[in-house]
Structure formats: structure tokens, C-alpha cells
Amino acid sequence: MVSLSLFFIGKEIKNMAEFTSPFVQRIAAGQNAVLLEDPVKSRCVNHRAGSGLVCVANSGNDCNPARYRVYGKANIAIPTGGTVGAISLGLSLNGEVLQTSLATVTPAAVENFFNVSFEEIVCAGKCQVNLAITNPNTQAIEVENLTLIVEREC
Fold first, then answer.
1. What percent of the chain has pLDDT above 90?
2. Which pairs with CB-CB distance under 8 Å and at least 24 residues apart come from 48-51?
3. By the 8 A CB rule, do 72 and 91 touch?
4. Cα–Cα distance measured from residue 131 to residue 137, given in angstroms and rounded to the nearest whole number
5. Where are the domains of the chain?
């Protein structure tokens, strides 16, 4: 009985992936954040360390799309020399920012970090989809303690 529950827990872990980048990085307008570490790996979610793209696949044998819950969080700020105003971070699906994922804050000054987060449902059909955490602003932002979690639901 114990071995069955350990096996079940192991299967759950295989359906989730986590990518992080703990260091401060400056992201130019319209560009993706770099994910440096893969603490939790998955057979359905692929990433090359140091890249900003995460590839999500449908590993099933049928035509039904695989559904994933995608959660992202980070601390964001306006870098020195930037213009104070609202800034955002969002999730891109195949290069297009999902407007519902935009997490926005308005710092009072440059170098003031605020925590933002988002959660989205993404489906992968016959073709793989590429996910990225993107700076949708018209100016550069700084990002630190970035985490992206992709969990297969069905």
C-alpha cells in the first residue's frame, strides 16, 4: 500500500514543472524574462536553462487538448533612469501577451519593488505551445525572484 501511494505522488510531480530566476534582471520593453533554474522538471513541459521560453506539449494519444494551470510571480520595479508610472508583467502564449494575465503596479519611485502574480489556464492541442513571462510595457523593467509554475490538470 505504501509503494502505491509513493507511486501516485511521483506521478503528480511529473505533471508539474517549476522555473525560477532569483537574481535581478532588466527586461527591455516587449522582451521575455530569462528563467535560469529548473528546480522541478516534467516530461510534458520543456525548458532550456537560460532561455525565456517554456514549451508545453500534449503528450496524450488523443486529439483532446491538454489543460495546464500556469502560475507566475515576481517582484518588479522601474530601473534607475526610468519614468515613474504603472508597470506590468504578463504571460505570453506563442509570442502574444494574454491581456488577462497582466499584473500591474504603480511604484512611487524608481527601484521600488512590488510583488505581482497571475494565474492562467492554457491548452495544448496537437501542436506544442510556447509560454514566456513578458514585459508588455513601453520601457524596461527590473524583475527579481521570478517563479513560473506549470501544472497539468488533464
1. 60
2. none
3. yes
4. 18
5. 2-152
Interatomic CA distance for residues 147 and 150, integer angstroms = 10
State how far the Cα of 98 lies from the Cα of 72, in Å rounded to an integer: 13
- Which of the four CATH numbers 2.30.40.10, 3.30.450.20, 2.60.120.40, 2.30.130.10 does domain 2-152 have? 2.60.120.40
pLDDT above 70 covers what percent of the chain?
Answer: 88
* pLDDT tens figures, 98-143: 999 999 999 999 999 999 999 999 988 777 899 999 999 999 999 9
Query: Which residues does residue 121 pair with via DSSP β-bridges, in sequence order?
Result: 69
The reported pTM is: 0.84
Q: d(Cα 43, Cα 66) in Å, to the nearest integer?
A: 13
